[in-house]
Amino acid sequence: MKDVISLGVGEPDFVTPWHIREAAIYALERGRTTYTSNLGLLSLREAIAASVETNFNVSYRAKSEILIAVGVSEAMDIAFRAVIDPGDEVIYHEPCYVSYSPGISLAHGVPVAVSCRAEDGFSVTAEAIERAVTPKSKLLVLNFPTNPTGGTMERAELEKIADLARRHNLLVMTDEIYSELTFEGGHTSIASLRGMKERTIFLHGFSKAYAMTGFRIGYACGPAEIIDAMMRIHQYSMLCASIISQEAALEAIQYGEADTIEMREQYRLRRNFIVNSFNQIGLKCHLPRGSFYAFPCIRSTGLDSKQFAVRLLEAEKVACVPGSAFGPSGEGFLRCCFATALDRIEIACERIECFVSRLR
Ligand SMILES: Cc1ncc(COP(=O)(O)O)c(C=O)c1O
To answer: How far is the first Cα of the chain from the last one, in angstroms, to the nearest whole number?
Structure first.
């Protein structure tokens, strides 16, 4: 369709900052066109170790506890394949990123969703997670800030979750890809809490914070034996991530912080505008404390989320993702990515208002 405003795909509208693109160009100019170590460039792993220590308060050894992967997507896949035995149960909070459940199933695990309710701001509690634990539970997947709800996690609740993981001997996979896009309150990684580093696989990447989705670089930090198991799958399936992208990621992690802060401030303005607009239109929308997604409730329109998204697209040419795409507990909601220019968001909101007013 022509003239569609997309609030659909979760990707920054910013082009990767120039100095990062230039690092990739320079890598090519220098003839950096080879494979790297399976674990990735040591210089990048060392820079990641320093950054994770500064920003997340956990120290990892660059030589044995960090693996560079083709995006968090690959890191997540090989983590699932490395730790899940057939029939192991993997608990995650829902609505959630679309890949968790299929990724667990592909590794012959059993996905166990803990549904979060809008009434509780979609936050997950240690109590709710504990109710889902069985003798077959192996791994707990956490994602804060959360795609699609923008939810974040208070340190006190995270302490309780860490406590239950230790008591039930659960491994934890924490996907912190949106951590730099936290607008209010600080961000705490569960990996930094007492007794958690040894049972946590920490995933992070460059796609969101540095607007580098096309570079496909992510990483996993964790206990050496898990990283080694992941590396064996990675070496036979992927060999290594692209060296050109790794060189660009090195530039990003060393010199890209100001870009991230600038983009975050833009996202904050857009978030405030879009959330305000939805509430004015009568689509109740909580304030996402992180990520770049608004998750308004569309139940008052009488449509389900897929009907709403399809009819909105057809009638007003605004693309959003039905909440049901993120699991049954996302039904009744719409995910709207605000990593789009403010003037486009303004027009999208006008179009949504027209659409909704015709339904009432
Ligand atoms: C929560 C979450 N994890 C992982 C990914 C995948 O990231 P990457 O581009 O690093 O593969 C996404 C992408 O949208 C995401 O939202």
So the answer is: 26
177 CA to centre of ligand 1 in angstroms: 7
Helices marked H in 93-239: 100-106, 126-132, 155-167, 224-237
Q: Encode pLDDT of 191-225 as tens digits.
A: 999 999 999 999 999 999 999 999 999 999 999 99
Helices 243-255 & 42-56 angle (0-180, nearest 10): 30
What sign for the dihedral angle of Cα 145, 148, 149, 150? Answer: positive
Model confidence over 156-179: pLDDT tens digits? 999 999 999 999 999 999 999 999
Measured in angstroms, how far is the CA atom of residue 346 from the centroid of ligand 1?
Answer: 26
| 360 in Cβ contact with 302 (< 8 Å) | no
Nearest CA to ligand 1 atom 14: 10
68: tokens are: 């560079």
Q: What letter does residue 194 receive in the DSSP assignment?
A: T
**pTM listed for this prediction:** 0.96
68 pairs with which residues across the strands?
A: 219
Radius of gyration of the chain (CA): 20
